[in-house]
Write a structure and sequence with these properties.
GMP Synthetase, Chain A, domain 3, 3-stranded mixed sheet, 3 helices
Length: 76
């Protein structure tokens, strides 16, 4: 899941070298933490959170084969 989020985020932002994705596993959940440059936050979140919601939808669809829930958190 980490690689998927990283590819999507790097395609959206102006500073792809500042994209950092970490993945931690807790019980039956995988938490993917996405960090981008402050100037790129708007591009990753989108108007009314539409892009962030789309990223989460794609990741949850990719995770449907596993028995784990994937949570994508966006930080700056």
């Amino acid at each position: 899941m980490k690689e998927l989020v990283e590819i999507i985020a790097k395609a959206l932002v102006d500073n792809p070298e500042e994209v950092v994705v970490t993945e931690t596993e807790k019980d039956k959940a995988i938490i993917v933490d996405l960090k981008v440059a402050p100037s790129d936050m708007g591009k990753v979140i989108g108007k009314s959170g539409r892009i962030a919601k789309s990223i989460r939808s794609v990741v949850s669809a990719a995770a449907s084969k596993t028995d784990k829930k994937v949570i994508v958190e966006i930080d700056n």
